[in-house]
Structure formats: C-alpha cells, structure tokens
Amino acid sequence: MIYDSSALAAFFLNEEARPLVECALKNDSNACTVDFGLVEVANAIWKRWLAGKITTKQTMIIHAEIDLSLREEVLQVLSSAQLLKKAIQVSIRHKLSVYDSVFIAGCSRFRQRLVSLDERQKSLAGAENVKLFILAALEL
Asked: Strand 76-78's sheet: what is its strand order?
C-alpha cells in the first residue's frame, strides 16, 4: 500500500487516527510512500513545534522515529520524479494538487491501494481506478 502524507503525519504525530495507521503498517510488508511525502510530514512536525504544541526534544524524537522506520525498511520510499508525468495528468484532470496526485499516480503505476485521511484525494482516487485501503475497517 502507499501511505500519503496525511496518514503518515497522523501516525508520527500521534493523532487520533494513529492506531488505525499503525495497525495497517504492522500488517503491510510492502508499505510505501513518496519521497517528498516525508518532507510534508517533516513540515507538519515543524508547524506543530512552531505553534508550541510540541517541544524541540519531541520534534527530534519524532524525526528519529521516521529515520528508524526508513532504516529498518518498515517504509519504502518511491521517487516522485518517476511519477511526476502521471501526477500532472491526474492534477489537470481533477484539479487536484500535484502533491496529492503523486500518491494516486504511484498507486496506479504500482497497482497499490492508497492509505489516506484526505477525503478529497480519496474521492478522486476512484476516478483513476485506484483502490483505497479503508482504515476504519480495521479491528484494533
């Protein structure tokens, strides 16, 4: 499955949906994201820090967890450069940001399901014949 930035941010920032994303990750031996999705997650962490919602120490701990996930290959990283052409086509067709479209493009190319908390992105994924992984359906 391909996890978008919203799902990964929920996981790493310990948001309400974390248990659902965590359960999906634990049961997914081929979990992937797109390279710049990690940058988007890092930016979400930084925004939390900037707003005073997490400390500098917490920020560094979260980034260490991301690094560990990558080193232990819990999460594979796809190149956005290889998906850009398809992502732009999806963006134009649906007036959806390239940021969101690249996850749909990855799912389409690699025949993976999308894991996302973004309602608009999920609704448009179906128009591209991308299947969703429904987090709410998981039993915790």
From this structure: 76-78, 32-34, 2-3, 114-115
Domain that holds residue 123: 2-137
Q: Please tell me whether the overall predicted TM-score, pTM, comes out greater than 0.85 for this model.
A: yes
Average pLDDT across each block of 10 residues of the chain; the chain has 140 residues. List them in order: 96 93 92 94 96 96 92 91 96 95 96 95 93 72
CATH number at residue 73: 3.40.50.1010
**Token pair for residue 11?**
């996981």
The DSSP string of the chain is -EE-HHHHHHHHTT-TTHHHHHHHHHT-TT-EEEHHHHHHHHHHHHHHHHTTSS-HHHHHHHHHHHHHHHHTTSSEEE-GGGTHHHHHHHHHHHT--HHHHHHHHHHHHHT--EE---HHHHHHHGGGTPPBP-GGG---
What are 48's strand-pairing partners?
none
CB 114 within 8 A of CB 122: yes
